[in-house]
Fold this protein.
Amino acid sequence: MKPIILDVDTGIDDSLAIAYAIHSPELEVLGITTCFGNVTVEEATRNTLIVLEHLDSEVPVIPGAGKPLFRFPLKGNTVHIHGHDGIGNTLSGEPARSALNGHAAGFIVEQARQRPKELTIVTVGTLTNLALAIMSAPELVELVDRVVIMGGAVTVPGNVTPTAEANIYADPEAAEFVFRSGIPITLVGLDVTMQTLLPRRELQGWREKGGQLGGFLADMTDFYIDAYERFNPGIGGCALHDPLAVGVAIDPSFIRTVPMHVQVDVEGVHSLGRTVGDRRSKPASGPNMDVGLEVDAVRFLDHFLSRVV
Ligand code: BDR
Ligand code: CA
């Protein structure tokens, strides 16, 4: 089993990613750390605990950053995408258990020190917690096996602005810090996640065969697909951004990656948060990550559907 920490801003697709990870026997989920992003960090923590309750999972949840490293929160209102509660307006009460005391960054460092070169960190929200972890313990970059980051848009348009993807845009300095740190990164950006669509028809099966968990995930995903259809008429589904990052942690061959030097625009007037990849034949610097550019969407979707509910 591969030990992982999942860092989330739960979020509808984060919820699907959590279900996928918890249901995957290849992964040992050591803990789920939370950050601001789709919702506040308090809401992300609550939503994560609620999703875990539906999964009958006791995996620890550790709250982290409530705001970007240096800025006031940048990201716009996501109520129209994730609902008033972040989970498609499915919230019906508070979770029975609480998050752990302590901070996400400390948990990440502690877990990495316990298993040198073994830990995979999958981030599907802002990179603030990971940046804080590396700042507090620079040796983390040598201690982890790999970081799989859902974020960025290297060869395709952004989603929150014409050029920026939401997780990077929400804390561009944190992302740039992580990118420069030397930690081994696989970038799972919009380049690949926009090709992995979950068709709405699959929700029927979740409702019929998936018990209370299936109904819960189907209700929130219906809300998400409605939002996707408003922005992309005729799309008939939603992108599986965060689940694809979990999928890549399980099986890296779901995507084809290219080694590349990628930087974040932290000053741009029109392109703040853009992930700028040096795709020239003779780049100015050596690669700092592997960037996913192609995905075997059919094989990934089959795998995801076989696990999530
Ligand atoms: C990313 O932004 C968030 O809204 C989603 O949960 C996903 O992590 C997609 O750009
Ligand atoms: Ca997310």
